[in-house]
Amino acid sequence: MKASMDKIVNLCKARGFVFPGSEIYGGFANTWDFGPVGVELKNNIKRAWWKRFVQEDPSTFGLDAAILMNPTVWDASGHTQSFSDPKMDCKNCKQRFRADNLIEEHSKGSVSAEGMTTEQMENYINEHKVKCPRCGNFNWTPIRQFKLMFETSRGTVEGEKDVVYLRPETAQGEYVNFLNVQRTARAKVPFAIAQIGKAFRNEITPGNFLFRTVEFEQMELQTFCKDENSMSIYENMKKKALKFAEDVGLDKDHLRFHDHEKLAFYAKAACDIQYLFPIGWEELNGIHHRSTHDLSRHQEFSGKSQAYLDPVTNEKYVPSVIEYSIGADRLTLALLCEAYDEETLENGETRVVMHFHPAIAPYKVAILPLQKNLSDKAKEVYSVLSKKFMCDYDEAGSIGKRYRRQDEIGTPFCVTIDFDTLEDDTVTIRDRDTMAQERIKISALPDYITKKIEF
Ligand code: GAP
């Protein structure tokens, strides 16, 4: 791994991938804004996910559910009762930490706090005299549970307001629409509902850039199935999720499965795919066998049957759910870390290059006139190519510097317009990774690029 988190953060800010949220006001902890290059990258990642899991699978259907849901949804899901983090404050420097993170960091990952009770965590911290990572003192408040759901209110009559929540996951939108989708898509179990959307969590974290933020996007997919087929669907989903992570650009040596040690009482199996981030092995996505828990709870709280009627056997049952959930921002961070490379060139200079899969690269092609007086022809080429691909146009500075800039934002192809172009309608196309250049006809460019950027 060539990238430290600092290098990634600095490149992201310098090149317009990601800026600190509300920066001119001193920032706003754990919020980030995607700039012109970053929004393209994240959109392409979401598109690749949607293509793989929705477009290419006839038994998966898309959804875009509301962020604000009837508050009873969160009672049924258990979030209002138990979606919280164990937090402690350092009485000396007033910094707040997650107790489970303190234990895992202190033990350098050899002790997992997953499944520990509050008392067990407090005992560990006291016995091992775990110090505040910020000021080095050992002076903690007791552990308190902090609710992770953001609350807001909705009122139709002045003064009368009801609490509503910003959804902390997109999954509940998929559960409550199970029968709507099943009926309208004429879907037969097993089938899946997929959705990409914002989720919000009142996280208190030590930073780590996009890894854990208070507002993020999830890409979630729930497969509704009969219990007897559920374990094989769970195993297939693990394979499919891993393959997607590799295909979109993550090195297989930087990916591994991590089975959960302690399962929720209703769960039959659960694992994460972890990625080797610059901060160590951390969860990239989760795959959970949730049994019939979610639909049964919504059936109980809504009073509406969530049973599926098998049209062949006439059997009526509440399906089990296999969930696959991945953060679009967390995957973006992993891909930024994976793509980062520093190469030493023959002339001794260092080239920073982002080796994104061409399908997710922010711009597919940059159009660069060798000199400013070639800009008319270059703009003609831009107007042809920009109808098909996201293109960048740059006529400022030396061609070498312009190549370097495109390398740093991961543009797979640079097209240079020179004086020969005016004579024979050919251009030079340069490959980001090999830096090899070839001469091709302008009319051949769309097909050439289309083939190379396929996902
Ligand atoms: N519906 C299941 C669910 O939400 P989760 O493990 O809490 O499960 C799923 O979240 C994925 O969402 C994680 O694997 C991670 O990729 C992403 N994620 C969760 N919390 C996040 C946060 N605060 N910031 C960025 N991504 C987050």
Keywords summarizing the entry:
alpha+beta, BirA Bifunctional Protein, domain 2, Herpes Virus-1, Rossmann fold, 3 domains, seven-stranded mixed sheet, 15 helices, 23 strands, 28% strand, binds glycyl-adenosine-5'-phosphate
Structural notes for this entry:
- By secondary structure, the protein is an alpha+beta fold.
- The chain folds into three domains: 226 residues, Bira Bifunctional Protein, Domain 2 (BirA Bifunctional Protein, domain 2, 2-Layer Sandwich), CATH 3.30.930.10; 64 residues, Herpes Virus-1; 90 residues, 3-Layer(aba) Sandwich (Rossmann fold).
- The chain contains 15 helices and 23 strands.
- The chain is globular.
- The model has no long low-confidence stretch (mean pLDDT 95).
- Bound molecules: glycyl-adenosine-5'-phosphate.
- Glycyl-adenosine-5'-phosphate binds next to strand 10, strand 13, strand 16 and helix 11.
**Structural class of the helix and strand makeup?**
alpha+beta
Strand proportion: 25-35%
Strand ordering within the main sheet: 3-9-10-16-13-12-11
* Total number of strands: 23
CATH topology heading of the largest domain = BirA Bifunctional Protein, domain 2
Query: How many domains?
Result: 3
Overall spatial form: globular
Count of individual helical segments:
15
CATH superfamily of the largest domain: Bira Bifunctional Protein, Domain 2
Rg is 25 Å
Low-confidence stretches: none
Unique bound compounds: glycyl-adenosine-5'-phosphate
Major sheet:
7 strands, mixed
Give the CATH architecture of the largest domain.
2-Layer Sandwich
Question: What is the helix content?
Answer: 25-40%
The CATH first-level class of the largest domain comes to: Alpha Beta
Through-space gap between termini: 24 Å
Average pLDDT score: 95
